[in-house]
Amino acid sequence: MTRNLLNLKINILALGTALVVCNCGTAWAEEKNQQTIQLKEIVVTAGRTPLQEGKTGRAVTVITGKQLEQNQVRYLADALRLVPGFSVSRSGTKGGMTNIRVRGAEADHLLVMIDGVKVNSASGEAYDFGALQTEDIERIEILRGPQSAFWGSDALAGVVNIITKGGKRDGFKVSGTTEVGSQNSWLGGVLLQGGAENYDMALSASYRRTKGFNISNFGDEKDGDTNLTLNGKVNVDLSEAAKLDATLRYVKNRTDLDDMFSPDPMRSLGAFAKKKDLIGSLGLTIKGLDDALTQKIRLSGSDQDYKSFEARGNGKNRSKRLSGSYQVSYVFDTPSFAVAHHTITGGLEWQREIYTNVLRHERETYSFVGEYNGEFYDQIYLNVALRHDINDEFKDATTYSVSGAWAIPETTAKLHASLGTGNKNPTFYEMFADEGWLRGNPGLTPEKSFGWDVGVEHKFFDDLLVFDVTYFNQNLTDKITYDDQSFPNTYFNDVGRSKRHGVELSATLNLLYGFTAGGTYTYTSSRNPKGEVEVRRPRHSGSVNVAYTFYEDRARLFGEAIFNGEIKDAGRTLDKYTVVNIGGSYKFTDKLEGFARIENLFDKKYQEVYGYNTPGRGFFAGLKASF
What we know:
Helices cover 8% and strands 56% of the residues.
């Protein structure tokens, strides 16, 4: 064990000892009472206005920050492995390039938002989940199926909406986490939450470093990663009717690269990539007519800078997005007609995207959005949305979405269904690439999709067991691909239809005496217009998780198994695999908690991307404290 690792452990012990001395007099029961009081019904953003989780027909999954903490999840991509319909592909070490595909769709068909701000690169490329840590996350809202009617081009197959931890009114709280482990890994995080009667704020910082492992089959060098994430958000009450909010996030990431297919070590020596992301937003919410009328104005922006340094040559690009929106919603009831509750929403959006590689490229979009939400007889829920995009590079596009749910009376069953269309603009790279072997095509047209799903949720034994099964079907036309039979390869819109369909199963079990369990299974069939199986999309995937809380809720043990079936990649078939993780935690006081886990318990050797190795068995331990 290195001297640095020993020093880190000494620092952890000193921190824990100090906090125990400061907080040993706090009553344990007090914390349990506070936690019970703070539990609230989760609300998800399943459209342009918030909806309660049970009142939408869309396929929705919510992951809380508490779940992430209890299961010691350090990267968001690892949490999404347990979500039905999601397939994760990580290139090597944690922090490396990580793409996610939903229901057999392309990786760039998934929109990612943080605190309502789009964080997908303005270049239009697939979002890289590699640098997305979980330390500051309060909740993750996941929508599957076409969402373009609500969120535009990048949401053709789904949305991952991340809400970071906010402030606390009338007081301040500081919490911190530190962790050490295999591959000379270290994590340190701190969160400050506070506020007064008319404002609240939160500031967080997280740093994670790992020296990693050799991600290729050649050489013996270590390929590591470092990640610094800073996040801040503030809410201010300007008056009883007007509220101002602002967010700012900065991520700096450095990842070692490797030449996967050359035995020459000089091609990989010192190769690495650097990425910097800066995103922010400013919003104003005004309510009127006894809160029946709500107006929202928001300005947001992102600036992403990427550089790579390799023996074959250096590369760089920069993408920026500026956007503004205005939205107004009106809520009213009709007690004499269908005993209904209604919300009507209209909005305007503007977006400018700027991409600079060798040349600078820009494009603008103006959008008009309308949405209706209705609740009838406290059992039927309906949502309809329509969007019209005016693009300066492509033909105008109109997308729609319809969903509904029926809570069947005198039962614990709920039927849910949705359908909609999606639209994905070509990326700047697909239009203007000039790599020698690969050329862009400025004449590309947007990809289009039509998708639907239908399912049933059923609760048994007084809601102790919740089971859901959903069938989905989503087809893609005008798929953008490139011709690998010519030189140089050139992007083009494929003729024909890419067909995707499958089944998603999920179940949760909450027994007495602190035992909980859950499981998921997804069957996915995804083929291109030629009938060939799409790459990096397993036909079979699933997960199982169990947890046991005991000793007056102070101690907790958990385990999870993640299964991926065979996948196609680079003309080869990658073997199926199952990875098992276990861990536990113990609360010494209401202010100090210790934890430990083992990742890849059985040291399984597998690949998610052809040519890239994955980490073996890893041991991690640390402390979490607050005061």
